[in-house]
Amino acid sequence: MNDKQHSLDNLLYLMRRLRDPDTGCPWDLKQTFETIVPYTLEEVYEVVDTIEREDYVHLKEELGDLLFQVVFYGQLGEEQDLFCFDDIITTLVEKLVTRHPHVFPEGTLTSSREDGVVPDETQIKQTWESLKSSERKEKGRSSVLADIPESLPALTRASKLQKRAANHGFDWPSISGVVDKLDEETTELKMALQQGDKANIEEELGDLMFTMANLCRHAGVDAETTLRKSSRKFEHRFQHIEKSVADRGKTLTETSLNELDQLWNEAKQL
Predict the structure, then answer these.
(1) Residue 211 is inside which H or E element, if any?
(2) Which pLDDT does position 168 carry in this prediction?
(3) Is residue 148 scored above 90 in pLDDT?
(4) Which residues contact 222 (CB under 8 A, 6 or more apart)?
(5) Is the pLDDT of residue 116 over 80?
(6) What residue spans define the domains of the chain?
């Protein structure tokens, strides 16, 4: 490798080479839109993980891997005469210009608002939702919830559903209502557990988690990120317990629950 700075054109050329029927890579040649979806999801999560760990040294690498996924889809679209990479860029630019009339008042990329004019955030949000509503109607989707993908992580999708409904007036007036709802759902879960009905327990647990996602939204925190942080905290504390137990020449199963609890509290203090 040399120190030459490569461009997007270089990356598109590389992609064409990988998919060349005669001289390309066998693995890349057998891929389809469907088969690379798992890799796309993996790359998204690796970008998120890198940012959350503040590992900015490697962020450019992970972002490059994610960009390659888009380039790959563009190549597949071009081969099937569906669209090309330039179409992806054009569609994106036009959509963003349209959705930001407070930045591009004439609907063109070069137009701009007058100096000193501060846009109203409430109006921006209303305009954004109105434009997205128009886009949904153009796609034949009447429900305001229609374009929220079912493939999203469950917590993320729950939050998006709640936010979209709230933008159209369906929401608790304050966070206290959500807290009361949380108490209500907790009580219903306790009753389901006492009855031992698995289907009912699952339903009540789902209602409780859905309400928790709503509580996160009202508290101004992202539910998915919040749970990931708690999971990471548990992981660090548990690893402290593992190390402490190993330092004593024992295994977890050889350690009493009382000792494990003491080590857990020690990990919390650390």
Answers:
(1) helix 198-219
(2) 85
(3) no
(4) 159, 216
(5) no
(6) 8-138, 154-221, 226-269
